[in-house]
Specification:
Blueprint (H helix, E strand, L loop, with lengths): L5 H4 L2 H23 L2 H25 L4 H17 L11 H15 L10 H19 L7 H25 L6 H25 L12 E4 L12 E4 L7 H22 L5 H19 L4 H17 L3 H23 L1 H7 L2 H20 L10 H5 L6 E2 L2 E2 L7 H32 L4 H21 L8 H19 L2 H4 L18 H4 L1
Antiparallel strand pairs: 1-2, 3-4
């Protein structure tokens, strides 16, 4: 019987290739059988991470940072728990990577469209830079300089850099709808986490630097059924303060984006908007901060002043609904209500101002050191007012800056705040629908930070500051890229006008 052996008659080169392929297949089979499954999982995750890194780098170097920015808006609250390494004293965080990518883009993507920052805003930035210099000088005087340096970077420098990048490079008007959707989703899951913490009475995403705060009869055992305790949630953030501030900023931002999009929103996005606004409002109210609630009521009053007719009555109806909520809380959880309405907390704030002034008078020029108030207060006798002792922390933005950086840091800090109001007021002078919307939104945001800054030291919360300055940068960039602003004469055009869609030679005339 004859057998036609084609393999034996094949050329030697083909035989060698076939042998190599067979050897590779056999080797892969042996490896797949012998190597543990977790090693394959680790290899697969590593491959995905490398591919993601290269794709992200290509996006950044190409100048398409809108994907990075929108992704950060969607994910930044979760980054503090899931994307911080190591868990304690993190060196790599989502915010640091995000700012680093934007910096790389600004340095290497030379074709990126840029816009000159108007003079009015530049003056505020210059005074903020002077404040940063004197705040940095105050770092070595702190007992823990590394903690002070972290606060300086994450709470003071990074938010300013983010706002600069947004105003300079981000094409806001092209991505209004995407920012709206991302903000809605972010607000919904943050509020859901907070509600889950209230229901389950535990911190669902604990962060080493954070901790839960409770309202009510927290001197008794929480397992006692008669004890009235209400968790004040922090959600994915390290503090309750950041949870509330991010909520009120998100609320103002969503209402701003809704007005800019107008009738262009499809039905599904209008539904998402209602859910997002409700979530942001819940996020604002759930921590039961008196200063946050006062700022929210003040915003509603100012908004009612700007509106007329049926819209004004709608705002007033919301105010009355808050009163109904407070009465319900007093009936359902009287101990919680009494604890939150206790006048001793107000007296403690007055005692704290006395302590802040005493520390300032001892170091009037250079302060006691950035983020060093608590350590400095331990060596002094605590102040008191009507049986309430000082809290040993500033609980006031202006007091913290005055006591910790002295007059050298206080004056440029105040000047920068005044000048940013002036910058937005100049936009208001255009007296158009867009300029009025921008001014009103900024006024609400500034009121929220200023009123809460008189009761909380929110200037040191990096997460809340980043979100606040991002929104400030977005609404300012929206204003200076609109046709309203062209008439004011403050808009300057870059040398390559074709990189700015929507601006033509006729606009410049």
């Amino acid at each position: 019987m004859l057998v036609n052996n084609n393999f034996s008659s094949a050329p030697p080169a083909y035989q060698r290739r076939s042998t190599v392929v067979l050897a590779v297949v056999v080797s892969i089979t042996i490896v797949m059988v012998c190597v543990p499954g977790r090693w394959w999982a680790a290899a697969g995750l590593s491959l995905i991470a490398v591919a993601f890194s290269f794709s992200l780098l290509s996006v950044v170097l190409a100048g398409r940072t809108q994907v990075v920015i929108l992704g950060w808006v969607l994910m930044f609250p979760l980054g503090y728990y899931y994307l911080s390494f190591p868990r304690e004293h993190s060196l790599v965080t989502l915010d640091r990577v995000f700012l680093g990518l934007l910096f790389i883009t600004a340095c290497f993507a030379s074709h990126l469209a840029s816009r000159k920052i108007p003079e009015a805003l530049r003056r505020s930035a210059v005074y903020w830079a002077v404040f940063l210099v004197f705040a940095a000088v105050a770092i070595p005087r702190a007992r823990t300089p590394m903690n002070s340096l972290r606060v300086w970077l994450e709470a003071l420098l990074f938010p300013a850099l983010l706002a600069w990048y947004i105003v300079r490079h981000f094409e806001v008007r092209k991505h209004l709808a995407a920012m709206h959707s991302a903000t809605c989703v972010m607000a919904i899951y943050v509020a859901a986490l907070g509600l889950g913490e209230v229901i389950l009475q535990q911190d669902l995403l604990p962060i080493p630097t954070g901790g839960l705060i409770v309202a009510g009869d927290y001197g008794r055992d929480p397992r006692d059924a008669a004890t009235q305790i209400l968790i004040r949630p922090n959600g994915p953030f390290s503090t309750v303060n950041s949870f509330a501030i991010v909520g009120i900023v998100s609320l103002c931002f969503l209402l701003f984006l809704k007005h800019t999009l107008g009738q262009r929103m499809p039905a599904w996005q209008r539904v998402l908007h209602r859910l997002g606004v409700a979530a942001a409002l819940a996020e604002t109210v759930m921590p039961l901060f008196k200063s946050v609630l006062i700022s929210l009521l003040a915003i509603l009053l100012v908004d009612a002043y700007y509106e007329a007719g049926r819209r004004r009555f709608r705002r007033l109806g919301v105010l009355f609904s808050f009163g109904f909520v407070f009465l319900s809380l007093r009936m359902l959880l009287p101990v919680v209500f009494e604890e939150r309405a206790d006048p001793l907390t107000f007296y403690a704030r007055i005692a704290q101002e006395k302590q802040t002034l005493a520390l300032f008078m001892e170091h009037p020029m250079n302060g006691v050191g950035l983020n060093n108030f608590y350590e400095a207060a331990q060596s002094h006798e605590s102040a008191a007012y009507k049986d309430a002792d000082a809290l040993d922390t500033p609980h006031n933005n202006f007091g913290a800056v005055l006591a910790e950086t002295g007059l050298t840091g206080f004056f440029p800090f105040v000047a920068s705040q005044i000048l940013i109001v002036v910058a937005f007021w100049r936009i208001r002078r255009a007296d158009s629908s867009e300029s009025n919307l921008v001014w009103k939104t900024f006024l609400f945001l500034f009121m929220a930070f200023s009123i809460n800054g008189l009761s909380l030291t929110i200037i040191y919360f990096g997460d809340a500051n980043l979100w606040y300055m991002f929104v400030i940068g977005v609404i300012y960039k929206f204003a200076i890229t609109g046709r309203d602003h062209l008439a004011t004469g403050e808009l300057t055009f870059p040398s390559r006008p074709w990189l700015n869609p929507g601006i033509t030679e006729r606009d410049k005339e």
